[in-house]
Design a protein that fits this description.
Helix 1 runs parallel beside helix 10 and helix 2 packs across helix 10. It contains ten helices and five strands, in the order αβαβααβααβαααβα. The two termini are 45 Å apart. The longest helix is centred in the N-terminal third of the chain and has 37 residues. It has one domain: P-loop containing nucleotide triphosphate hydrolases (Rossmann fold). A five-stranded parallel β-sheet has the order 2-3-1-4-5, with helices on both faces. By secondary structure, it is α/β, with parallel strands linked by helices. The N terminus is likely disordered.
């Protein structure tokens, strides 16, 4: 007689492990499907000459880097260009604030993803005192007009703000402290953002309220569950761009030339990377 499966026979640990495995398989399948659609989007962008800007802002450790990685890992960096600017130089500090960002806006056939953007002025610059309150308020007044000009020029502009709970942010920061391959992600600014949670909360609340517009609305991405956040956000990006699938014209590889009868393999010594043993 065949054995009858009984979920009650499983221990809580076994059930948890099975649920995690199923979720991971579903996520991998769905992210693969979305990355195929991003490849179709890329083909359409190249053919149509579309210009797209995608802004990612949000709390530190909310998952912006992972989100951008999943978007870009299967497409060309010549089409999907990521912009993550360092602190401004002395020369850039003397320029009009938006000037350094305008230089990175897309040309025809490009998608530019800003890993943080001009909204630094309303977030870290304001909270940490890198910009005066007067300059921050002026930015909040001008940003919607600046973005209106971008959209009116024909650029598709999408803005996403990733949120994370206090508890989840703390868990991720502690994981970065304990994991050598993640320690580089924990900067002094991250520590400040952890300690000044409510200062950033007030700044972000006002930023979202004052710069949300019909032509460039903010879209909030709850990110305590990173995998769910990635699926939701990438799906929304694809739904927000009126792209069409472009038929792929498979090239004819033809025939490879025959080895020349007079070719003699080079016998000089070459350095070969040694194999490692396990």
């Amino acid at each position: 007689m065949d054995e009858v499966y009984d979920a009650k026979q499983e221990t809580p640990m076994e059930r948890k492990g099975k649920q995690k495995k199923t979720k991971s398989w579903d996520y991998n399948k769905e992210i693969r499907r979305l990355q195929i659609e991003l490849a179709h989007l890329q083909a359409w962008v190249k053919k149509s000459g579309a210009r797209i800007v995608i802004i990612f802002e949000g709390r530190d450790a909310a998952g912006k880097g992972g989100m951008i990685k999943r978007i870009t890992e299967k497409v060309s960096p010549r089409v999907f260009r990521v912009v993550a600017l360092p602190a401004p130089t002395d020369r850039e500090k003397s320029q009009i604030y938006m000037q350094r960002y305008i230089a990175h806006l897309p040309a025809a056939g490009e998608v530019v993803i800003f890993d943080r953007s001009w909204y630094n002025r309303a977030g870290v610059d304001r909270v940490m005192g890198f910009a005066s309150e007067k300059k921050a308020q002026r930015f909040l007044e001008l940003a919607p007009r600046f973005e209106a000009a971008i959209v009116e020029s024909g650029v598709i502009l999408l803005k996403y703000f990733l949120t994370v709970s206090e508890e989840e942010q703390e868990r991720r920061f502690k994981r970065r402290i304990d994991d050598p391959v993640r320690q580089w992600k924990l900067s002094p600014m991250d520590v400040e953002s952890y300690q000044r949670w409510w200062d950033y909360t007030r700044a972000y609340d006002e930023m979202l309220r004052m710069t949300d517009s019909n032509h460039a609305p903010w879209w909030i991405v709850p990110s305590d569950d990173k995998e769910r956040a990635r699926i939701n956000c990438i799906s929304h990006i694809l739904q927000s761009i009126p792209y069409q699938r472009v038929k792929f014209e498979a090239p004819d590889l033809g025939k490879r030339q025959k080895r020349p009868s007079d070719y003699i393999e080079d016998q000089s010594v070459r350095n070969v990377v040694p194999e490692t043993t396990r």
